[in-house]
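Input record, target 12 of the design panel.
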């Protein structure tokens, strides 16, 4: 692993590969047929092939780099918001107006759009909502409202980062838990925990749960606005299309959550306390092209270790510091959909991780069941 990766315009340009989604989505929408396969194939197949061809990027930038030097990196996260809004709502208007796609084509289109609004839109929202700048946080809220998952901001910032790799965090996938058990569980638990966290914050300030400062009012207003826009532009068909793409986007988000911490746990210290979060509590992936597409989300070990770092400054870690995924997120997401394959690949890695970091722990049952004495 080498240091001092230069942060230049040329270094920022690969992260703009997200914009390739736009022509691919437009071609699929206009022409249907096999053109519809381009959007999902880009995110899953081409990026995985390019990961294989280009290898790992183990260079690290200077983490003390000032924001002024990150203009072209930050710009892509800001520009993507209006691009996604215009593109998605154009699709919701165009398809109902022309009725040129059959049922299967429509599902494939919305699957591709959901991959885009999930694997790109929510990932960009994740970056934006971590910033102190109010405008960036609002832009993140807009992206989340486009997939009806606005509570993710509260859940992620107030619950996930505080309790990651413990039984108190719903989106830390348990050892041996399949994605198909994980997914319905988080759909139920995460909105509830996000609401509870916001209400607890308001209570500490002497405010009620229904106070106007509760962000759930903003979440509801933004999501209602998106639903109304879909209905106005595309009628009932447009509204139904909006809901389907949102489902696929949420599916992609939770697949990513499933991958990021599968089977990893922080050591229980007693009295209801766990050790501090360290790089070893998230799976790291240094695959070059998928990190470009996902704006370094795969450098997840460092994100949890230093949550306030902007994506260009995230550090990658070697095998001696953080557990490593064998492939980038796109291929890992596909493999997670086949539980027997996933377990054969990941369970030995979890057991190796346990032996490496916590050889003194002999009974892991309380970590799986969340019933520490």
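The sequence produced for target 12 reads:
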């Amino acid at each position: 692993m080498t240091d001092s990766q230069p942060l230049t315009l040329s270094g920022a340009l690969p992260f703009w590969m997200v914009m390739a989604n736009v022509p691919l989505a437009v071609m699929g929408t206009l022409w249907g047929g096999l053109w519809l396969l381009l959007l999902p194939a880009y995110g899953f197949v081409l990026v995985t092939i390019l990961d294989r061809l280009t290898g790992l990027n183990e260079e690290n930038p200077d983490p003390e780099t000032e924001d002024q030097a990150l203009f072209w990196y930050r710009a892509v996260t800001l520009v993507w918001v209006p691009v996604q809004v215009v593109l998605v709502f154009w699709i919701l208007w165009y398809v109902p107006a022309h009725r040129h796609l059959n049922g299967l084509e429509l599902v494939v289109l919305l699957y591709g759009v959901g991959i885009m609004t999930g694997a790109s839109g929510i990932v960009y929202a994740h970056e934006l909502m971590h910033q102190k700048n109010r405008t960036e946080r609002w832009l993140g809220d807009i992206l989340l409202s486009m997939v009806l998952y606005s509570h993710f901001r509260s859940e992620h910032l107030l619950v996930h980062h505080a309790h990651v790799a413990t039984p108190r965090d719903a989106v830390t996938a348990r050892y041996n838990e399949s994605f198909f058990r994980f997914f319905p569980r988080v759909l139920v638990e995460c909105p509830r925990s996000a609401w509870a966290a916001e209400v607890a914050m308001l209570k500490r300030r002497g405010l009620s749960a229904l106070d106007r400062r509760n962000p759930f009012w903003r979440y509801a207003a933004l999501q209602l606005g998106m639903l109304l826009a879909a209905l106005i532009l595309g009628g009932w068909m447009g509204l139904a299309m909006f809901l389907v793409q949102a489902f696929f986007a949420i599916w992609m988000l939770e697949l990513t959550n499933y991958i990021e911490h599968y089977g990893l746990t922080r050591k229980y210290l007693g009295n209801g306390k766990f050790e501090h979060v360290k790089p070893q509590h998230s799976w790291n992936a240094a695959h070059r092209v998928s990190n470009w597409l996902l704006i370094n989300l795969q450098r997840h070990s460092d994100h949890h270790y230093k949550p306030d770092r902007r994506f260009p400054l995230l550090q990658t870690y070697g095998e001696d510091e953080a557990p490593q995924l064998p492939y980038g997120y796109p291929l890992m997401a596909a493999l997670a959909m086949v539980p027997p394959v996933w377990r054969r690949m990941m369970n030995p890695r979890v057991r190796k991780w346990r032996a490496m970091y916590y050889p003194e722990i002999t009974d892991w049952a309380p970590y799986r069941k969340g019933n520490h004495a």
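The chain has a mean pLDDT of 95.
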